[in-house]
Input
Amino acid sequence: MVDVRLDHPRGGEPLVSEANLRVLRGEVVMIVGAAGVGTSRMVAAALGEWPTSSGRIEMLGRDVSKLRRASLRLMRRRVGVVPQDLCLLDDRSAQINVCLPLEIDGIPRSVSIVKATSLLGDMKLSSEASLPVECLSAAERQRVAVARALVRSPDIVIADHPTSMQDAAGAELVCNALAAAAAKGAAVIVLGRDPALRAMAERLGWSMYVLVEGRLRAMADLGSAVEEVLASVDSVQVAPPEAPAAAEEEEQDNVVPFPLSARTAGVA
Output
């Protein structure tokens, strides 16, 4: 990510200004941001689902903004995504949801089931594997989405608030799985603001950044100001700019339903 700017959908001050970030293979980077400051837009922009106003985003050595739709789809097959809205197939089993990315790749179900079973076991969901996702708790559904993101052994993992529905034990399962993906060579980006998640990230030695006032800043560079900045992340409610008069009747949420193009794109 080089000098990236993301404008607010309603105008006004940009959500993100001159953001620079590099994530290497085997590294986990956490980005902390208050609600509504643009972290989910960054996820969508990274996958070509939201345009940058300036700068560029490179994934796997390719400038995302210059890729055609077919190339974007191929690139996403090397990226595991845990979107905030999970994008699961509610009427299918947890096992089928996790198998789906491999089946899209043409992997025989006999092979995909073995890998899905292993990942669901890591998420402590072995007993729930055959149940429809709609029968699972919110925390269990979120861990299914994490398992699905990892089933292809992706080169890049992007996890958008992956522990927001978890208790302490569930959050540890998720973080350990993400750390294991990095240990196998993936570049992992985690977005969230949960203090427990931040504490776990510190314990695991993840690089940490904070998105505040539109700027992406390394926590290591904040020095004694880090506690003040984190306090602002925990407490500030971000009010979107007023919509233009002509668009007052149309409500527009600042959280992007992810992915934008299709509900199944999170696994394709």
Notes: The chain has a mean pLDDT of 85. The CA atoms of residues 60 and 75 lie 8 Å apart.
